[in-house]
Amino acid sequence: MYCNPEIAYVIGLIATDGYLSKDRRHIEFASKDLELVEKFEKILKLENKISVKSDGKTKNIYYRIQFGNVKFYKYLNGIGIENNKSKTINKIAIHQDHLEWIREELYCRIKIKGSLTKGSREYCLRFAKSETLKLFYKMYYDNNLFFLQRKYVKIKDAINII
Questions:
Q1: Which of 20, 64, 91, 114 could make an SS bond with 30 (beta carbons 3.0 to 4.6 A apart)?
Q2: DSSP letters for 140-158
């Protein structure tokens, strides 16, 4: 399967807030954020209906979309996302070399210097404020990109505070 930035975005959403059914075919994504579910639907070019559900206890409203795709399901399994992922997910198969490649590409292509550090469970790319500003404007160069407006505003506000 070809993985572009939009598919990578969807895979991240599935890894965090998705559900893979036991039938090895159906994939569900749910969120309190309708904009996020709509972006998920748009990226995958789904025509399925977005439904509304309640958690039953707190009466919080969630938006959800479910679709069947055996090939995509198998692809997700192949990179470490499986049914019952909250109990089985360990690491998504992203090798440290890929992260180092990202750091190098950022420098080679847009002259942004950063460091790659390893935490207890994750790798982090770290940048100085001036480099963060460069990266921010490179990331959000077009309003037609897939991003959440509320996150964009939050990041922009944080950068302006620093």
A1: 64
A2: TS-TTSS--HHHHHHHHHH
Q: Would you call 31 helix, strand, or coil by DSSP?
A: strand
User: What is the reported pTM?
Assistant: 0.64
Select from 36, 69, 88 the last residue of a domain: 88
User: What b-and-e string marks burial along 72-106, b requiring 16 or more CB atoms within 10 Å of the CB?
Assistant: bbeebeeeebeeebeeeeeeeeeeeeebeeebeeb
Q: Which domain holds residue 72?
A: 5-88
Judge if 121 and 148 occupy the same domain. yes
DSSP label at residue 49: P
